[in-house]
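User:
Hi there, any thoughts?
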Amino acid sequence: MSGRGELRRLVLGLAPDGPDQLHRLTQFRQEHPGVIIGSGEFGTWQALIPEPDGETVTTRHTLRELLDRLDELTAEQDIQPGADPG
């Protein structure tokens, strides 16, 4: 049995909100290879974002919610001090 098939079953079991989130998770991991994403306790999803002075840990109930929050957090990190955000 392939690792990808096992991952798919795990994600579908933990993420009833979706097979469409598998693609989103894969894309996020490609764009942010340093961010660690996995299952947390009590059926949650958790991510660890490394930072120069430590790390940020975020937990959400669904994969969709976690990826939404990670999009927000990584967008904030992409804005450099003194830079025009938009």
